[in-house]
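Re: the 221-residue chain
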Amino acid sequence: MLMQKERELIVEYGKKMSSSGLCPGTSGNVSIYDPETGYMALSPSGIDYFATLPEDVVIMDLHANIVDGSRKPSSEWALHTEFYKHKPNARAVVHTHSVYCTTFAVLGLPLQAVHYVIGDAGAREIPCAPYETFGTIELAQAAMKVCGESDAVLLGNHGIVVCGKSISSAFSLARNCEYIAQLQYQAMCIGKPNVISGAQMDEVMEKFKSYGQPGSGKKGY
């Protein structure tokens, strides 16, 4: 079975996304990319995360060809391939319908630097792409068009998609984005949030480069 380890990680992190509340029901999807083969392991369409087995995970190339697997791949395969095509460091993509991120996606508003952890996305702000029908090339292209340097982008009236250098870092970024969205929402309910300046965020992102233990590859807070 191709990409056995990656398939097992897809199953593991699908359960984590569901249990953490990032993906209600069977919503959302996750993938891992292997640049050496040009293949990605992608979660299947419409199967409960806790019922998904490694053999249910679909192996595809970046041209949407199924290389291995008998299941139908996630309808959002194009979101994943667009990130891998245009983000050279991306090795995993996580797409969720987490409640607070999706709230701002419904409003068409970006996530702002209300907390310095937004720097985990490599940007001062997480933009929102205009609405496009789910499971379409147009949605994937709209997301890529607006995300710029950010490793995360909101999808209008839909959810959020993020990428990372590993599945663990992508999952961590998805959780951080939901945390920021909740803070921003709650602060807006009370008043006007104080937004960290661009210069201050530049300092944060520079410090993130040396965060964690040497050689761990960990960034964040």
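The mean pLDDT is 94.
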